[in-house]
């Protein structure tokens, strides 16, 4: 076959586009993250020995971050409300790693109790002398329709997810500015960037975090050694739905939803660590088809709204019918009660 140089170039370009397309379809994070995974610094090199404070360390993503960081040799401050659960996580960290008892501080903390945050930070500093990285991970979600939701639920979501996180960050940051180095990594959500039906208050609280940290990042430009990062995961396996607020405070979710379609917690935690090691400022972490939504919302909002309305309507209808709204996009919906 006689192929001209131009045809070879065209074929090469086509092959390149196909390879990139396949990579994108199989991707589980944004392009910067993909680059960091392939060519960036490894967490093993960058995070060993660091003092890392994780809020919401008693379950889900925070618990998994604690395990992976302990294996890397990072020293840990573990916080959430339940001390016994934190001691369990600490015990596992010690057995998975070569860390010593004093390398992990269990520091119970309620994001709602903002008046206690200053003293908690002082306790952490007294133990380790400094905090290298604060991971603002603790938070709660929501599964309820706006028209049925008490405003107290909206207040609680803002208090925990937004104000609790802001309060702790404000207490930790001065220690970082004094040293001129540190990182604040905040686990936001896909709901911090896009609209999510049944989670109006949760999405609002995560949008608030995005606005806050995107603005703070620029205020911190006088401190080039300080990194402000936000993490935007799509659905990840954890207790988030089980622990979600419903339409009234104190009314629990009736059943945990199917988690098969969600990203494994370990993969999400690993990607967060890669992002931290490479000081990435915004991390989009999700399987397809969720990842494509991030891009659509960013670049073609009109198309994104049309698609969200189509899929979101089904989610709302399933919820109203008492079906599992979370897995309803992907599998035969299950009754939640
Ligand atoms: N799992 C997901 O699909 C997903 C997706 C996007 C973002 N996120 C975010 O990831 C973070 C971790 O959630 P997860 O999925 O591991 O859920 P999870 O429910 O398993 O863990 C949440 C953690 O936050 C803690 N927490 C809740 N209220 C608190 C309070 N008042 N004070 C202190 N700690 C409190 C819990 O004790 C727990 O340790 C949250 O900020 C969540 O919004 C989760």
TrEMBL record:
Pfam family, one: adh_short
Domain Ketoreductase span(s) in chain numbering: 50-239
Gene Ontology terms describing biological process: lipid metabolic process
Transmembrane segments: 6-25
Phylogenetic placement of the source organism: Eukaryota, Metazoa, Chordata, Craniata, Vertebrata
Molecular function, one GO term: oxidoreductase activity
Entry-linked Gene3D superfamilies: NAD(P)-binding Rossmann-like Domain
Family: Belongs to the short-chain dehydrogenases/reductases (SDR) family.
Top-level taxon in the UniProt lineage: Eukaryota
UniProt signal peptide: none
InterPro entries in the record: KR_dom, NAD(P)-bd_dom_sf, Sc_DH/Rdtase_CS, SDR_fam, SDR_family_member_7
Keywords assigned by UniProt, alphabetized: Membrane, Oxidoreductase, Transmembrane, Transmembrane helix
Protein name per its UniProtKB record: Ketoreductase domain-containing protein
rRNA-binding found in the keyword field: no
């Amino acid at each position: 076959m006689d192929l001209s140089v131009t045809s070879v170039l065209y074929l090469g370009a086509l092959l390149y586009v196909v390879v990139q397309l396949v990579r994108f379809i199989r991707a589980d994070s944004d392009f910067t993250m993909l680059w960091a995974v392939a060519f960036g610094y490894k967490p093993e090199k960058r995070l060993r020995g660091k003092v890392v404070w994780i809020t919401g360390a008693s379950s889900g993503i925070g618990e998994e971050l604690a395990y992976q960081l302990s294996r890397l040799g990072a020293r840990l401050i573990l916080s959430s409300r339940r001390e016994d659960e934190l001691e369990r996580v600490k015990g596992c960290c010690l057995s998975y790693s070569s860390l010593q008892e004093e390398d992990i501080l269990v520091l119970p903390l309620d994001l709602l109790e903002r008046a206690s945050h200053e003293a908690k930070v002082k306790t952490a500093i007294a133990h380790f002398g400094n905090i290298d990285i604060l991971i603002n991970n603790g938070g709660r979600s929501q599964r309820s329709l706006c028209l049925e939701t008490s405003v107290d639920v909206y207040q609680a979501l803002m208090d925990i997810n937004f104000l609790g996180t802001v309060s702790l960050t404000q207490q930790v940051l001065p220690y970082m500015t004094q040293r001129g180095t540190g990182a604040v990594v905040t686990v936001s959500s896909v709901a911090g960037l896009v609209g999510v039906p049944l989670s109006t208050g949760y999405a609002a609280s995560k949008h608030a975090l995005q606005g806050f940290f995107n603005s703070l990042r620029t205020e911190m430009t006088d401190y080039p050694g300080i990194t402000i990062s936000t993490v935007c995961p799509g659905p990840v396996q954890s207790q988030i739905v089980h622990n979600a607020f419903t339409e009234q405070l104190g009314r629990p979710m009736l059943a945990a939803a199917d988690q098969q379609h969600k990203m494994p917690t370990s993969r999400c935690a690993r990607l967060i660590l890669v992002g931290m090691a490479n000081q990435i400022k915004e991390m989009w972490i999700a399987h397809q088809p969720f990842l494509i939504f991030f891009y659509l919302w960013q670049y073609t909002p009109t198309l994104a709204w049309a698609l969200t309305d189509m899929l979101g309507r089904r989610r709302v209808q399933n919820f109203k019918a008492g079906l599992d709204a979370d897995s309803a996009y992907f599998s035969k919906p299950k009754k939640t009660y």
